[in-house]
Amino acid sequence: MKIDRLLAIVILLINKRQVQAKELAGMFEVSVRTIYRDIEAINQAGIPIVTLQGAGGGISIMERFRLENKLLSADELAAITTALESVSSTYEVLHHGSALEKIRFLVSEEEMPEFRKKTEKWFVDISSWGESPVIKEKIRLLDEAADSTRAVSFTYVNREGQTGTRKAEPHTLVLKGRHWYLYAFCLKRQAFRFFKLLRMKDVQMLEEKFERKEVDLSSLPWETSWYKPDNMTELTLLINPSGESLAREWFGSEALTYENGQCVATVSYPEDQWLYGFLLQFGTHIEVLTPPRIRQKIKNLANQIVHLYET
């Protein structure tokens, strides 16, 4: 994207005394003519760029405008690098690798040993074991659609198993709980909806263009309906000794109390098919005490499973 390139050029010029147009062209894989057009655009934005021709010439920011210190500290550059490397573990986007190279270019040779130590201290691998190439292809297609503001169509199976065709305007790809989701404006519902990529198939990018809507991602808008107070159900769970470490991992130590020598967890979740499957995965390690209707629901499902394997 052009805006990414312009920003990268400004950062490079702030951190370097002078750079050749040919060097910038090679770095961003564009023509020298494109670089000069970028320089003109930066000038028009109010950042004074000087271009000197001939031997020893090059492109630089006017001395009176240059910042005395780097725009980003070494610690900030290391934090950005670690974040990009972690995201790239599950989201293979070419410009992430390009951004990493540009960040390393900003670090001087003297600072490089310390920089490497900081960036190699942490690595967060958020990818799944044996991640499906089908999911990666969906991510690539939806990323392209969001970039080009083009609508997408797909077949979707909801939590209740109902199948339907959807058309939506893709805004944001979200990785949550080790699963990818699409936050998009559903044209059928005329509202934003959260779609799980595993439930999407036959994803196609359409020629139809759309105008992006304002979304405050800092408020995690996809969680507003999930955590509505009237949508939550409080559960009391009896934790068997064999399941204490598992319960602590899922619910946190704060949710666990001990009564008459027994471990009990008090948690709140929305009641739906997801909750039943979530509780069943604990097997005999956890027993639902209250509410009675969920206890009975889990009992019925467990009996159905037993019956399935007995036939």
Automatic annotation (TrEMBL):
It holds the Pfam family WYL. The keyword Transport does not apply. Residues 2-57 form the HTH deoR-type domain. Keywords: Transcription, Transcription regulation. The keyword Transcription regulation applies. Transmembrane segments: none annotated. This is HTH deoR-type domain-containing protein. It comes from Bacillus paralicheniformis.
